Each structure stands twice: as C-alpha cells, then as structure tokens.
Amino acid sequence: MVSKNILLVDDESKIRELLKIYLEKEGFSTCQAADGQKALEMLRQNSYHLIILDLMMLGRYL
Length: 62
Known about the structure:
Layout: E1 5-9, H1 13-25, E2 29-33, H2 36-45, E3 50-53
Parallel strand pairs: 1-2, 1-3
C-alpha cells in the first residue's frame, strides 16, 4: 500500500508535531509548513493527498 502524503500547515509547532506523530503512527507520510508562504512553496514542488490547514494563523494568509 502506498503511503498517503499529508501537508500540515500551522504556525504552532506543537500542534504540527502532535498531528505528525498521530498521522505517521497511522501509516501516513507528513510534511510540515509553519506559514502560508512556505505551504505555497511546498505545493509548487510537491503534490499532497490532503492538506490540514490552520485558518487562523498570524501573518500572511494563503
């Protein structure tokens, strides 16, 4: 079975890390972005099956 790629976008590192631990334990592959700008850069270079996005991040929005 091919692992599904999930992009985690949140400005809180603890939230990203908790999601990463849980999702990888369930067999998913994860990547992380701390802000919208980094997430956009990652989306230009890779494709993801799912994006989990914090809608209330500080700074610039997607």
